[in-house]
């Protein structure tokens, strides 16, 4: 099974709730973190990430702290799905699913959330 084949047909299969729930949780964390940044007087996330040379590590660790548990949950759910439906484990597909369903939405939404709110 290739990585792409492992992800594309899945939204119409059992456990498809994760395709909607996990990005929504990532959106929740993006909004929460934006509000915390605003309250503490920090620059918007991507601007700070691009220009804050000494603070990039702190920003990345803060973002990982927010989405890390959800990422792990996404990977575990994907592995459970694989075992139930396919009777096999593909860890690389599970990691990619976690990145696509949680980390990418968080990173993409944290910046625009600052403009919307």
Quick synopsis:
This protein is mainly α and 117 residues long.
Textual characterization of the structure:
This protein has one domain. Helix content is 78%, strand content 0%. α4 crosses α5. The mean pLDDT is 78. With 117 residues, it is an all-alpha fold. The chain is elongated. The longest helix has 31 residues.
Keywords:
mainly alpha, single chain, 78% helix, 117 residues
Please specify the SSE layout and strand pairing:
Layout: H1 3-7, H2 18-39, H3 45-51, H4 56-86, H5 91-116
Helix pairs in contact: 2-4, 2-5, 4-5
Distance between the termini: 42 Å
Low-confidence parts lasting 5 or more residues at pLDDT below 50? none
**Count of discrete alpha- or pi-helical segments spanning 4 or more residues:** 5
Taken as a percent bin, the fraction of beta residues is: under 5%
Radius of gyration: 16 Å
Question: Describe the biggest sheet?
Answer: none
- Helical percentage: over 70%
Q: Give the domain tally.
A: 1
What is the arithmetic mean of pLDDT? Answer: 78
Question: What form results from the Cα inertia axes?
Answer: elongated
Number of strands: 0
Secondary-structure class: mainly alpha
Element pattern in H and E? HHHHH
């Amino acid at each position: 099974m290739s990585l792409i084949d492992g992800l594309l047909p899945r939204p119409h299969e059992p456990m498809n709730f994760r395709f909607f729930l996990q990005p929504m949780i990532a959106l929740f964390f993006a909004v929460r973190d934006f509000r915390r940044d605003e309250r503490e007087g920090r620059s918007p996330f991507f601007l700070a990430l691009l220009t804050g040379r000494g603070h990039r590590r702190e920003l990345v660790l803060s973002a990982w702290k927010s989405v890390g548990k959800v990422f792990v949950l996404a990977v575990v759910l994907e592995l459970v799905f694989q075992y139930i439906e396919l009777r096999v484990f593909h860890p690389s597909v599970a990691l990619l699913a976690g990145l696509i369903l949680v980390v990418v939405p968080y990173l993409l939404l944290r910046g625009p959330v600052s403009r919307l709110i």
